[in-house]
Design a protein that fits this description.
about 260 residues; alpha/beta; TIM Barrel; eight-stranded parallel β-barrel; 10 helices; globular; binds 1-deoxy-D-xylulose-5-phosphate; binds the ligand NCC(=O)COP(=O)(O)O; cytoplasm
């Protein structure tokens, strides 16, 4: 019997186009132009993280993205009152609530959904009430995922950063243990009715591996693609990524998937 494997979407994160722009001031390179190119190359959605310190994406970038995109915009943001108000005003198709610390170099760890209490639950409710699909960016911890379902999130995005670091450092045993945690978390979330996304630090190799986890429906990838675009162009980088994801997905049901 033929297995119908659900498709895997690619969300392209354009934050680090803005990082390069902001290194010199001015308007170039423009993350909105990168987003349009990414869409032409086959991105299913665009992700942008409006950090509280505006170190890369800025408010005006979010407005312009919302104005021009024909694919869903995934607004990544800290779970603060300021960001919730901005998101409600902008009305993107999706919001991903992430933990944020000013002094961090990049997003460390997952959102503490259990510790977020009623305040986080209310934020999820306010965003959902205006039709925004809410995702919580979490470490692969089953109790956090169960709480995400309890407070009405539609999606969890599993933080793949620790796994990718172990892979890059050649820490094979740690990488295998972390991947097993991701696989368990994905199954548990799907069983609770959550849609499962994954992202952070993925490259073609790791994306190809995680693509073979059937419950995972979307990967959000930025830093690698924007870096690889220097060598292969954005279209070329996205083509390579799509190929890696398709190969990983094709392994499902053949007995060769992880
Ligand atoms: C939450 C997340 O994984 C992405 O937003 C990614 O972190 C890119 O932004 P930073 O590199 O600023 O964390
Ligand atoms: N949510 C993860 C994301 O959008 C991209 O993360 P990265 O590929 O830039 O590390």
């Amino acid at each position: 019997m033929t297995r119908i494997v659900p498709p895997l979407r690619l969300g392209v994160n354009v934050d680090h186009v803005a990082t390069v722009r902001n290194a010199r001031g001015g308007l170039l390179p423009d993350p909105v132009r990168a987003a349009q190119l990414a869409c032409a190359a086959g991105a299913d959605s665009i992700t942008a993280h409006l950090r509280e310190d505006r170190r890369h994406i800025r408010d005006d970038d979010m407005r312009r993205l919302k104005d021009v995109l024909l694919v869903p915009l995934n607004f990544e943001m800290a779970a603060t009152d300021e960001m919730v108000a901005l998101a409600i005003d902008l009305a993107p198709q999706a919001c991903c609530l992430v933990p944020e610390r000013r002094e961090e170099r990049t997003t460390e760890g997952g959102l503490d959904v259990l510790g977020g209490g009623i305040d986080l639950a209310r934020k999820v409710e306010r965003l959902s009430a205006v039709g925004i699909r809410v995702s919580l960016f979490v470490a692969p911890e089953e109790d956090q995922i169960a709480r995400a379902a309890d407070i009405g999130a539609a999606v969890v995005e599993l933080h793949t950063g620790a796994w990718c670091e172990f892979v890059a450092e050649g820490e094979t045993a740690k990488a295998e243990a972390e991947f097993a945690r991701l696989a368990r978390a994905a199954r548990r979330g799907a069983a609770l009715g959550l849609e499962i996304h994954a992202g952070h630090g993925l490259d073609c190799a790791t994306a190809g591996i995680i693509a073979a986890l059937e419950p995972v429906r979307e990967l959000n990838i930025g830093h690698f693609l924007i870096g690889e675009a220097i060598f292969a162009g954005l279209e070329g980088a996205i083509r390579q990524m799509r190929h890696a994801m398709a190969q990983g997905r094709a392994a499902i049901g053949t007995g060769t998937a992880a």
